[in-house]
Amino acid sequence: MRESTKGILAMVIACTIWGVAPLYWVHLSHVPALEIIAHRTLWSAVTFLVVLALQGRLRDLIAALSRLRNIAILLLAALMVSLNWLTFVWAVGQGQATEASLGYFLFPLVAVLAGRVIYKERLGALQWGAVALAAGAVVLLTYGLGVAPWIALILAGSFGLYGVIKKALDLGPVISVIAEVVLIAPAALVLILNASHPATQLVGSALETGLLMFSGVLTAVPLILFSYAARRAPLSTVGLVQYLNPTLQFFCAVVILSEPFSLWHGLSFPLIWIALALYTFASWRQDRASTRAASSAASSSTT
């Protein structure tokens, strides 16, 4: 099997795990979301440290945490990803997985807009059109439901800011994620030790205890697979396959969990999908132009 094929397969598996995650978290909906996230953080830190130890890469983590600048950026990134995890788990527990999926559909467009505002990245006409169409969909949904889709906006915004913050780091993706959860694991442990829910104290049922502890593996494995895919598969393919995640979340919410899907959802979601199609096409066209320019430059240098 070619390396690029292995990368695409790893990406599909990672996005599938993320996409069906609502079916996992719904079984813990009776546990406070903050306490679930505490367990998720602690056990993912344990899982990551075991993987690093087996790979003989603990020194890489120590080196990453030896600079105060890295620690400050990692803590800020950890705050954003924790907010994202907390919002998603809470939303699933409240029967709002449909809106949560909307947040991950919106995320690429929010990331594009954040890149324009913060890093002054240039956007083409199609990309601006995609952002405008997505904004229109949010306005339409807000008008129809009488309230802004705050869950979706928080998920898209926190993950978008997470990506912006991570651009300031010169660490590999796996090491940076491990460093984030390791830094906040002590706070997670304190929260667990002072929790009131029996499941959080690991004195609940065997199923509850197992689900809370396995959440670390559920968090670590797709992130490792994503990192593996990013190094081997074309970035355009990785970006396209990522839409499998919110698509599966949407399917789980509406079809399996039977969440309500109103007329306003039916109007706004297709607008988001059209916006993503425009954005994907624009990105693909830019990638092709960059590839052609690089090939022309290489040909000129050899003649």
Describe this structure in words.
By secondary structure, the protein is an all-alpha fold. It has one domain (3-295). The chain has helices spanning 3-19, 21-25, 33-55, 58-64, 68-93, 97-119, 125-145, 150-166, 173-193, 206-232, 235-241, 244-256, 263-302. The longest helix is centred in the C-terminal third of the chain and has 40 residues, at 263-302. The relative contact order is 0.20.
* Fraction in helix: over 70%
User: Globular, elongated, flat, extended or rod-shaped: what is the shape?
Assistant: globular
The number of domains is 1
Structural class: mainly alpha
Q: Residue-averaged pLDDT, rounded?
A: 85
Unreliable parts: none
Give the biggest sheet.
none
Helical run tally: 13
Strand content: under 5%
How many extended strands? 0
What's the SSE pattern? Answer: HHHHHHHHHHHHH
The span between the termini is: 36 Å
Radius of gyration: 20 Å
Outline of the structure:
This protein has 303 residues and is an all-alpha fold. It has one domain (3-295).
Which structural traits does this protein have?
single chain; 13 helices; 303 residues; mainly alpha
SSE blueprint:
Layout: H1 3-19, H2 21-25, H3 33-55, H4 58-64, H5 68-93, H6 97-119, H7 125-145, H8 150-166, H9 173-193, H10 206-232, H11 235-241, H12 244-256, H13 263-302
Helix pairs in contact: 1-10, 1-12, 3-5, 3-9, 3-10, 5-8, 5-9, 6-7, 6-8, 6-12, 6-13, 7-13
